[in-house]
Amino acid sequence: MEDNSGQSDAVNGGGHFSGAPLSPWKRSRERFLANRPGVIAGIFVLLMLGACLCAPWIAPFPFEAQDLALGPAGPSREHWLGTDTLGRDVFSRLLYGGSVSLQVGLIATVVSCVIGVVYGMLSGYVGGVRDSVLMRIVDVLYALPFTLFVILLTVVFGQEMWLIYVAIGAISWLTMARIVRNQVRELRTQGFVEASICMGQSTTKIMWRHLFPNILGTVIVYATLTVPGVMLLEAFISFLGLGVKPPMTSWGLMIKEGADAMADYPWLLLFPGLFFAGTLFALNLFGDALRDAFDPKKA
């Protein structure tokens, strides 16, 4: 009797063969969805981002609302996470502050990734003297004092939120460029790249169709690790008076303010710290899951 089990297993409910080769993006999606911690972390990050961006509509209290008579009070039915020294609702400020921190982290990371990936791929692919010159430029930029760079931008262009994105993104791409350059240098000698060169494909096509997909996992992982670093950097420049200005706030600034009052009002540090740490942990899990999903070495 003819065995049709193999055929029946290969055909799914929609009449398609499950054994048919999948595109790299579909394989990556399936591997990512199979990583439950990564999926949960991604959902958490999206929910946190959505809640912070919707703060004007879902926050229990207006951002500027304060009650000096109430002052700093612990968590209660009316103020779930307590109030700060000016009687402002901590939960509401966490939502508003999170929108600033996450926007700075995401936008500055995108800027740094675009610059770093393009610069690093070009440097690693051309090689030789041009590669050395491009990397020496990176070394020179590393030597520039970041604080002085931000101060100069503030003096020249004024103190605007978009300036924070530009300033942080313009300096955070240096490490990304080095990582991408090293990856491309290794891939440059692989057979599939040499074959593409022999076939007469353009440099742009080789870099974006053959090299970029093989470094995408590394770029995504480093990008997810860059976001928390950028958020911490934003907190530092806000502490210097060059970033977020009161009454606006961010998670980093709230942590700094909470640290100053930690002995008397511990909830002012505890809750911003938990929000910040939880988001960073979720970003790391999400990045690890994406790295595994986009790894071209996996079948």
Give the helices and strands, then pairings.
Blueprint (H helix, E strand, L loop, with lengths): L4 H6 L13 H11 L1 H18 L1 H4 L31 H37 L1 H16 L2 H12 L3 H28 L2 H8 L4 H37 L11 H10 L6 H28 L5
Helix pairs in contact: 2-12, 3-5, 3-12, 5-6, 5-8, 5-10, 5-11, 6-8, 7-8, 8-10, 9-10, 10-11, 10-12, 11-12
The backbone outline, from C-alpha atoms, is globular
Radius of gyration: 24 Å
CATH class categorisation? Mainly Alpha
Strand content: under 5%
Q: Name the structural class.
A: mainly alpha
What CATH architecture do you see?
A: Orthogonal Bundle
Mean pLDDT: 81
Structure report:
This protein has helices spanning 5-10, 24-34, 36-53, 55-58, 90-126, 128-143, 146-157, 161-188, 191-198, 203-239, 251-260, 267-294. It is built from 12 helices and no strands. Residues 1-18 have low confidence and may be disordered. The protein has a single domain (22-294), classed as MetI-like fold (Orthogonal Bundle), CATH 1.10.3720.10. The protein has 299 residues and is an all-alpha fold.
Jot down its keywords.
12 helices; disordered N terminus; mainly alpha; globular; MetI-like fold; 299 residues; 72% helix
